[in-house]
Specification:
Number of domains: 1
Shape: flat
Helix content: over 70%
Order of helices and strands: HHHHH
Distance between the termini: 66 Å
Largest sheet: none
Number of helices: 5
Length: 166
């Protein structure tokens, strides 16, 4: 499996042992888990996805597979909207599809990793690592901004409360 700049891989040893890299790996892991759960849910609801065996050899076959998945997602969104409308009318909150979707397993094929490391693959690897660093820094900047906003909100609430008391 070759790395690309759009692919985010977790840090490996020894870099993963640094605290900020460990936190970044946790966030990457959470995104992967959410994605895998979503795929499993959709496969549980739409069995045609579970057994969708399309050999993607050209743009036409790629579009076919993409449209098939997109159609299932669109139908799913429509079903959720209808379910929400029904629930608001009936007052019940049980969904029989959730248990089915969560219980289905994903049939993932793991591509073997290539042993050949040419100059082009080394450049892609370096670009992917640089992109991962950019994403990690962006994550920490966003967390810092959120913490500052929350602290500012708390300070303004305390100030307002003090002004009311006076």
């Amino acid at each position: 499996m070759q790395l690309e700049t759009w692919l985010v891989a977790p840090y490996k040893k020894p870099d993963r042992d640094l605290p900020e890299n460990e936190e970044f790996n946790n966030h990457v892991s959470m995104v992967c888990i959410r994605s895998e759960h979503t795929i499993g849910f959709l496969k549980g609801r739409f069995h045609s996805l579970k057994h969708l065996r399309v050999r993607i050899t050209d743009e036409r076959s790629h579009k076919f597979a993409t449209y098939w998945v997109a159609a299932c997602i669109g139908i799913h969104a429509f079903a959720i909207q209808c379910k929400d409308e029904e629930l608001s009318d009936s007052g019940s909150d049980e969904d029989p599809f959730i248990a089915e979707g969560l219980s289905s397993s994903s049939d993932s094929d793991v591509a073997p990793q290539s042993r050949r490391r040419g100059h082009a693959s080394q450049l892609r690897l370096q670009a992917a690592k640089a992109r991962r660093e950019q994403l990690k820094q962006a994550l920490f900047r966003a967390k810092d901004r959120r913490q500052r906003r929350e602290a500012e909100d708390e300070d303004s609430e305390e100030t307002e409360a003090n002004e009311v008391d006076e």
